[in-house]
Amino acid sequence: MKSKPSYSILAVDDDATNLRMLHEILSPVYKVYAAPSGERALKFLEKQHADLILLDVEMPGLNGYEVIKRLKLNPELAAIPVLFLTAQEGRDKEEEALRLGAVDYILKPITAGVVLARVNLHMELEIYRKRLETLVNQKTAQLNSTQDSILDILASVTAWRDSGTGGHITRTTSYSRLIVECLLEKKHPNYTISPLYGENIIKTSKLHDIGKVAISDSILLKPGRLTGEEFDEIKKHTTFGAQMIDDAIEDLGDESSFLHVSREIVISHHEWWNGSGYPMALSGKKIPISGRIMAISDIYDSLTSERPYKGAMDHGEAMDIIHRETGTHFDPLLINLLQDTFPRFEDIGLSQRNTDEASGTKRGKR
After folding, report:
1. Containing domain of residue 260, as a range?
2. Which listed site, 23, 101, 341, 342, has its alpha carbon 20 to 30 Å from 138?
3. Tens digits of per-residue pLDDT, 263-272?
């Protein structure tokens, strides 16, 4: 095996003679560190990295079994391959070592040929595992980047179809991010979301109005207020959008979790807490948390944005309406959890509107 001095091994044994032998056998190929006890080994690993551990079983204090149990409880150390060193023979001892997560089992007295062959084998496997892990991470990052680009393109399609929507999408995505961050930080038992689910909410919130591409221009771009019949047509953007995403889910399969979250948002962001929303008249916690989050972001931005038929409200006026409609339109506990977060909505809204105007991208000017 070609010398790889950059790879390191931690040898753990209370017998100084064994540690010297292991160093003589392995140091021509690897960096070898020695620890005379389980406690010293764990302290070493708090500050230093090891690519592989040779671990004696029978030691005073923490024995090898106790050490590996602690290693497996630490996410930063759990993946390090461990080879047990022991004078105990027997199938039950070997099974116990493997059950606890060891990759191999070397009997004492140790011999140079056996130790070097086993260490070389498992080090090659570890190098391969790390390379594979790096490749998977690179491919995942590439996939996520592609996914984000596609979402941006789809959001842009909506923005081009609906004047004023470009800034709306950007701002509502930012508001949704603030809400998700708040829930992840506060960890309320009734509003437990995983980081992945939260990230999917943020990513796909920009598609909440994708169904509007199926609404006719005469209604979508009408400068004044809509008639009741026209508003009924606008409402269909929720089901149109859900149908589009259903087609994508059918093509890509159920593994595309972000699409399922996107569908939740598209179909439910106009539902009301009291059941008077659309398209399914869902109420309370039957409305997905993603839809309840999007409802807050969407309405806040609508209230604080200028439209052909109305002026923009300031932050205080918008919050008065949101609080007034808490329990009817909005989830009351969610609104209560966000009290410290709402002031940041105003800062983001002002900042992004100023950016839009400075760059000339305000969609209403097309």
Report:
1. 162-365
2. 101
3. 999 999 999 9
